[in-house]
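Ops channel
N.P.: pipeline sanity check, posting one input/output pair.
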């Protein structure tokens, strides 16, 4: 029987950090001491992170952060998992923790939409006088979203202001309710909407993750999975239904499996069923398959074989090693 010995923390806080570079360096050292892995961005406007580690390590991290006056009320969204969700630790200082172009940028501490608790959000979803705006990238929407939500045709958050202007500007008299994974993108997205003249702007407090864990709403009216930026790729949200909304790019069958293209110079995450992954050798397109025929050194399976050989050489038996051996066997490589 598997044991759920790890936790994944998702969190952010808009607060002043005077020297982001110095803070990031110290923070990275602290996380390493605890054995934590994940991705943390630090900027003058605050911190944005996703970390995974043991129960003890993640608790020590949360206790440490809350002992700092700047982060004492920071909310942590927590998932319990069997394994670490990250392979490495990445802590970097940036200009912003959620980036918009300079002319579009907003300060969530000064201008933000109205927060909705999960039950309030659930009630709002069922109204016919609202626009449900997905505050994520299009590929995140494709694997799962709230019913009736508008899909943004974007691949980068910076594109949102222009997309809103071109697609929603005639609906400024309507209520707009926005959502994203953990809540941080909506902190700025709702400010962008308000700056563009929308009056009734709301967003889901704590994001999709909080909504899925709420014991009253239980993730209702969410279809598909929620895309996450770690090794899990996606997580379940709706506790009562498991509706698949995404389709295999090759055959069109319903599936919620994201895989990376075998072409290392493409590496596109695309939705593929198991049968098509095998038939098409993990390529997202015929063009990528032909490219590798001409450039065999860029075949991701070669990189996988090299990793597996190192794992064998040094007697590695961790999860990533086991996955590499299994994938090699499935692909009949090595």
């Amino acid at each position: 029987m598997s044991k759920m010995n790890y936790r994944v923390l998702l969190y952010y806080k808009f607060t002043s950090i005077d020297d982001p570079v110095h803070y990031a360096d110290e923070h990275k050292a602290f996380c390493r001491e605890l054995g934590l892995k994940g991705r943390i961005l630090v900027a003058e406007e605050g911190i944005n992170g996703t970390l995974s580690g043991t129960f003890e390590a993640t608790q020590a991290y949360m206790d440490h952060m809350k002992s700092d006056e700047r982060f004492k009320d920071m909310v942590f969204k927590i998932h319990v998992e069997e394994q670490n969700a990250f392979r490495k630790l990445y802590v970097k200082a940036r200009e912003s923790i959620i980036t918009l172009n300079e002319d579009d940028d907003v300060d969530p501490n000064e201008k933000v939409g109205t927060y909705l608790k999960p039950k309030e959000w659930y009630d709002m979803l069922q109204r016919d006088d609202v626009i449900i705006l997905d505050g994520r990238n299009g590929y995140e929407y494709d694997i799962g979203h709230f019913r009736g939500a508008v899909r943004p045709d974007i691949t980068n958050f910076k594109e949102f202001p222009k997309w809103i202007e071109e697609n929603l500007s005639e609906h400024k008299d309507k209520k707009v309710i926005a959502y994203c994974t953990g809540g941080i993108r909506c902190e700025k997205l709702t400010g962008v909407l308000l700056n563009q003249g929308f009056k009734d702007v709301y967003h889901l407090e704590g994001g999709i993750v909080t909504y899925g864990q709420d014991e009253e709403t239980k993730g209702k009216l969410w279809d598909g999975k929620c895309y996450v930026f770690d090794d899990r790729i996606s997580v379940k949200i709706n506790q009562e239904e498991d509706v698949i909304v995404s389709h295999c790019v090759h055959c069109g069958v319903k599936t919620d499996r994201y895989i990376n293209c075998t072409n290392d110079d493409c590496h596109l995450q695309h939705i593929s069923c198991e049968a098509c992954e095998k038939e098409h050798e993990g390529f997202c397109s015929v063009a990528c398959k032909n490219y590798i025929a001409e450039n065999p050194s860029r075949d991701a399976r070669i990189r996988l074989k090299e990793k597996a050989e190192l794992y064998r050489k040094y007697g590695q038996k961790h999860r990533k090693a086991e996955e590499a051996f299994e994938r090699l066997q499935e692909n009949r490589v090595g």
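N.P.: looks fine end to end. The mean pLDDT is 93.
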